[in-house]
Design a protein that fits this description.
Blueprint: E1 30-39, E2 48-58, E3 63-68, H1 74-81, E4 89-94, E5 97-98, H2 104-111, E6 114-118, H3 129-139, H4 144-157, H5 173-185, E7 191-195, H6 203-220, E8 223-228, H7 231-237, E9 240-245, E10 248-254, H8 255-260, H9 265-275, H10 281-284, E11 296-306, H11 309-320, E12 325-334, E13 337-347, H12 349-362, E14 366-373
Parallel strand pairs: 3-8, 3-9, 6-7, 7-8
Antiparallel strand pairs: 1-2, 1-4, 4-5, 9-10, 11-13, 11-14, 12-13
Helix pairs in contact: 3-4, 3-5, 4-5, 5-6
Bound molecules: adenosine-5'-triphosphate.
The site of adenosine-5'-triphosphate has 12 residues, from strand 2 and helix 1.
């Protein structure tokens, strides 16, 4: 029997050894308990501690983003959730069952209740869209008539009913990912693991796929775990976020809280990248480190969860009587709070620059002197 991770089954699996008594509403969909993963030394390569002491839970029906840089341990976490890897220590409980303890047929059955979507779609090029979606149903032994009905339902769900007979080579990236999503959902899994599923798509298609995933979560109640290195994906879709760095969970909580008040340097770096904190090239080329007799001090203001972002510059200018120049601005809203960065030009010499920095600090807004321009 084929053991592709995306393959599902027709009926809900009956747990053989439930860890938690049935009916416990609060039981999360996925729970990591003291989870560690070490890949043993190989030839001249030392041991790799890919995951260290992971302890957190993912609520049923939630959409959780797991974000981290390359090598942080995201793929290892995915492989531990769907039982393709065994933990070195600890365990992973999925839907009440310790998946890390399952082997053979019970493991294959459990894997079928976890849908997977991939960055490069992993469709079979020799099969049409409909036949790709049908594959897990064929493996699960559905009848031809049931498969036909279910495939047609799924094509409607992902909104590409007209592509039924098309081959992957005839489809766009977004359409291929829709097929991937339909295939992952074919057998009604409880959990959908998305492993960088939008990383190969353009921003507009990404948006459409994320909207589709949001609808699926809302309508089918499937728990979605989004593995990504892109903060924008987490921000658009997830309510909860887990930041992994060097195999450890370094921050975790509501997306709005974490991204408006990032504490760990990795989270701060994700935010800066997403918001484009970089100084515009035309400004950077004119910046000098020492004050000029005539010119402006250039100050970068970090808006992190302040609700006063929209009036801050106006108030600063009015209250300090300074002709503040707005040299660059990037403001976004996360959970109703302003997040972004402004680059201000402050004329009036050192005294005005110091006053500005003090004013911002008084209002709990952090700032940084970038230099001076004439
Ligand atoms: N099968 C393996 N054998 C040995 N080391 C591995 C194996 N798989 C992953 N690693 C190592 O474990 C660490 C975590 O890798 P992992 O692929 O989980 O990270 P990731 O966050 O998914 O990275 P990426 O975004 O680049 O895929 C890395 O140092 C990686 O080299």
């Amino acid at each position: 029997m084929n053991a592709h991770p995306y393959v599902g089954i027709a009926e809900p699996i009956r747990p053989t050894e439930p860890v938690v008594p049935a009916g416990r509403v609060a039981e999360p969909m996925v729970r990591f308990e003291g989870l560690s993963k070490v890949y043993p030394a190989y030839r001249d390569k030392p041991d790799v501690e890919a995951l260290k002491d992971i302890d957190f839970a993912i609520a049923r029906g939630s959409i959780t983003g797991v974000i981290g840089r390359s090598g942080a341990g995201k793929s290892s976490l995915v492989r531990l959730i769907n039982g393709l890897e065994k933990p070195t220590a600890g365990r992973v409980i999925v839907d009440g069952r310790d998946i890390s303890a399952l082997r053979g047929q019970p493991l294959r059955l459990a894997q079928r209740s976890i849908g997977m979507i991939f960055q490069h779609f992993n469709l079979l090029s020799s099969r049409t869209a409909a036949d790709n979606i049908a594959l897990p149903l064929e493996i699960a032994g559905w009848s031809k008539a049931d498969i036909r009905a279910r495939v047609s339902e799924l094509l409607d769900l992902v909104d590409i009913a007209d592509k039924h007979d098309r081959y992957p080579s005839e489809l766009s990236g977004g359409q291929k990912q829709r097929i991937g999503i339909a295939r992952a959902l074919a057998t009604r899994p409880n959990v959908l693991l998305s492993d960088e599923a939008t990383s190969a798509l353009d921003p507009q298609t990404t948006r459409a796929i994320l909207d589709l995933l949001a609808n699926i979560n809302r309508e089918l109640g499937v728990t979605i775990i989004l593995i990504t290195h892109e903060m924008s994906v987490v921000r658009q879709l997830a309510k909860e976020v887990v930041v992994i760095d060097d195999g450890r969970v370094v921050e975790r909580g509501h997306v709005a809280d974490i991204f408006t008040h990032p504490r760990h340097p990795t989270t701060q770096a994700f935010l800066s990248e997403a918001l484009g904190d970089a100084v515009p090239v035309s400004l950077a080329s004119r910046l000098v480190p020492a004050p000029l007799s005539v010119g402006q001090a250039v100050i970068r203001v970090q808006l992190r969860g302040t609700d006063a972002g929209d009036t801050l510059v106006a108030r600063l200018a009015r209250e300090l009587s300074i002709d503040v120049a707005l040299l660059s601005a990037r403001i976004d809203e996360i959970g109703g709070q302003h997040v972004g960065s402004l680059i201000l030009g402050i004329p009036g010499g050192e005294a005005a620059a110091r006053q500005t920095v003090a004013y911002l600090a008084q209002h709990h807004v952090s700032s940084e002197r970038l230099g001076y321009v004439s």
